[in-house]
Write a structure and sequence with these properties.
single chain; 289 residues; alpha/beta; Rossmann fold; 7-stranded parallel β-sheet; two-stranded parallel sheet; 11 helices; 13 strands; globular
Length: 289
């Protein structure tokens, strides 16, 4: 198995970890926006090429051309998906290419007023970021169909994990307990992303799947639970209507839905490692100890 990962960020690095745990002979290379970002991965046996998305990466072509599996974890820009824009020829030349995996987002669905939805729900994105994701998903479907290669699209919920959780925000004093009546979010622990990616790679899984936890919950509950586990006072509750939020922060509250994850669990025969935020946060805190 020769894996190439576009965008070795938080989720993709966890996928690398699980691929390493599952396969003894896997070869993994990937890309980062700068050489400095990639240097930390050399100790883990992953060579990282520089690719900032604005031009072709100078060195990654040969690695991509020998790839059997490609994981795509780069946000699309106004002109489309950077990997497809700048390295389509290298993908075309990858004679052993068997499988593509694209990390998308549940933001492509838009707002459903808190109702449960699955992968059959219509896509009504509410912002430009999600519009671009919808277009990128289709671009990769078209490419995979033209190449005769299997493609798995994983629509990720709100990502958290060690080093990127409510604990870090509480310690930094940046946690907010915003209350918008009826608002719920799904989340996904980064370890579940890594594990599912490794299992999907083995199965050459094909199709579009939600990757979310089992229990969508109000965002303020997460903050309160995290503070309780730490033994600190939670920040005061703030009414969403009057809270001082950036346009980016406000945009996340525009979508309100409960995302069903049954399809990915059935396809791989699994349950989530962390089915709700309580299990995930408890594990993070135990890991810190």
């Amino acid at each position: 198995m020769n894996v190439f990962v576009f965008g070795l960020g938080f989720s993709a690095r966890e996928a690398v970890t699980h691929l390493r745990l599952r396969y003894q002979t896997v070869n993994i290379e990937g890309s980062n926006r700068s050489r400095e970002r990639g240097e930390a991965l050399t100790d883990r046996g992953v060579f990282s090429h520089v690719f900032d998305g604005t031009r072709p990466g100078e060195t990654l072509g040969p690695a991509l051309r020998k790839a059997s599996h490609v994981v795509l974890s780069i946000a699309p820009g106004p002109e489309g998906d950077p990997a497809l824009l700048h390295h389509r020829a290298d993908l075309d030349a990858a004679e052993g290419l068997e499988w593509l995996c694209y990390y998308s987002t549940v933001g492509v669905y838009g707002d459903f007023g808190g109702a449960w939805i699955d992968e059959s729900a219509p896509l009504v994105p509410r912002n430009e970021r999600s519009d671009r994701r919808v277009a990128a998903e289709q671009a990769w479907r078209d490419y995979a169909r033209a190449r005769g290669v299997k493609l798995a699209i994983l629509r990720l919920a709100g990502i958290y994990g060690p080093g990127r959780s409510v604990f870090d925000k509480l310690r930094a004093g940046t946690a907010h307990r915003i209350v918008k009546p009826g608002q719920v979010f799904n989340r996904i622990h980064v370890a579940d992303i890594g594990r599912v990616t490794a299992l999907a790679a083995e199965a050459r899984l094909e199709g579009t799947y939600n990757l979310a936890d089992d229990a969508p919950a109000p965002p303020q509950d997460l903050v309160t639970h995290g503070a309780t586990l730490m033994g600190v006072e939670p920040p005061p509750a703030q009414d969403f209507a009057t809270a001082q939020l950036t346009p980016m922060q406000k945009s996340f509250y525009a979508d309100n839905k409960r995302v069903f994850n049954g399809a990915i669990k059935k396809a791989l025969g699994i349950e989530m490692l962390y089915p709700d935020y309580r299990a995930g946060l408890n594990a993070i805190l135990e890991g810190e100890k």
